[in-house]
Amino acid sequence: MIKAQRLTCRYDAKGAPVLQGIDLEIAEGQYLAVIGPNGCGKTTLVKHFNALLVPQEGKVLVDGLDTKDPKAHREIRRRVGMVFQNPDNQIVGMSVEEDIAFGPGNLGLSSAEIRGRVGVALEAVGILRLARRAPHSLSGGEKRLVAIAGVLAMRPAYVVLDEPTSYLDPAGRERVLNVLRDLRQEGISIIHVTHSMDEIADADRVVVMNGGGILRDGAPRDVFRDADALRAVGLAAPQVTELMGRLRAQGCGVRPDVLSVDEAFREIAALLGRAAGGGR
Ligand SMILES: Nc1ncnc2c1ncn2[C@@H]1O[C@H](COP(=O)(O)OP(=O)(O)OP(=O)(O)O)[C@@H](O)[C@H]1O
Ligand SMILES: [Mg+2]
Asked: Is 233 part of a structural domain of the chain?
């Protein structure tokens, strides 16, 4: 479990805190989505989960390990893999293969095991063809996929991804979302920071941040149902949820908490059935 207790953070000692006493528990195996407007503190929060930032006030525990203890950092970073918002910050090797091998290389694994992990990770994100390229020569989207492969090769228990689908084309985005589905099946915890509501309709839990605090915390269906609360902080529910909300506003008797196209289809089909029945 990752536990944040009364976590407060200031970048500027005199300024207002960027995180204001956050309390959050993330259970093992949970798929948690973190959303919120630009500058609300999402990146700052998740950087505390692998001890890139340590609490100035409050506490963060990763499976009971205190991130304030420098001796625990190695183990914390083995357990919590992090895909940064800016993929340029994550590149270390001379080739993509070498880059991805860097993390597992620090775990004391055999070279056969490392090669195996690198191959599996390249394959999982669909970039085998980039294996021998120089990372600095890659496009933004390619760098992002390399960063994700690098984290997968570490086989962490928790994977934090900070806007992992930005820069990606629809195919790359779909591959990343598929990787997340696979990780989830394997029981790996996912902390997914995103601005794309459509990506997280099937998360276990959505945390909505605003102004350094947590505004809402619940199942996607419950969080997205409250469209007014989201709009008030400049966010919107998934497109299909919004569409059904507009139909409701027009007087159509559809559910307010539709999350997927399949559910919308069923609601609209039922509505059309009722209209046809009523007309006879
Ligand atoms: N290194 C830093 N030094 C000073 N201020 C910072 C630093 N990093 C972030 N901030 C400020 O802290 C606040 C929260 O930033 P953070 O990056 O956590 O937001 P975010 O929710 O991830 O935003 P985005 O959606 O744009 O990625 C912002 O006001 C930002 O300007
Ligand atoms: Mg951010």
From this structure: no
Task: State the distance from the centre of ligand 2 to the C-alpha of 217, rounded, in angstroms.
Answer: 19
What amino acid is encoded at 268 in this protein?
I
- The residue among 13, 6, 23 whose CA lies nearest residue 58 is 6
User: What length is written for the chain?
Assistant: 280
CA of 247 to the centre of ligand 1 (A): 37
Helix/strand/coil percent split, the chain, to 5: 45, 20, 35
Unique residue bearing structure tokens 């196209």 = 261
Question: pTM to 2 decimals?
Answer: 0.91
Task: State the pLDDT at residue 278.
Answer: 65
Question: Of the candidates 43, 91, 74, which has an alpha carbon nearest to the alpha carbon of residue 194?
Answer: 43
Q: Which atom of ligand 1 is nearest to the CA of 44?
A: 18
The domain of 125 spans 93-146
Q: Residue 93, exposed/middle/buried by CB under 10 A (0-12, 13-18, 19+)?
A: middle
